[in-house]
Amino acid sequence: MRNFLLASCVSVIAFMAGASAQAQQIHMQAKPTQAVSHGAVGSALQAAPMQLHGNAHAGWGYSGEYRASQWGGTCSEGQAQSPINIARYLQEDLPDLGLEYQDSPLVVVNNGHTIEVKFELGSGFHIENVPFTLQQVHFHTPSEHYLDGAPYPMEMHFVHMAENGTLAVVAVMVKVGQHNNTIEGIWQNVPGEGQTNAVPMVKINAENLLPEGRDYYKYIGSLTTPPCSEDVIWHILKEPVEISEKQLRAFQSVYPVNARPVQPVNGRMIIGD
Ligand SMILES: [Zn+2]
Question: pTM of the full predicted structure?
Answer without folding.
Answer: 0.83
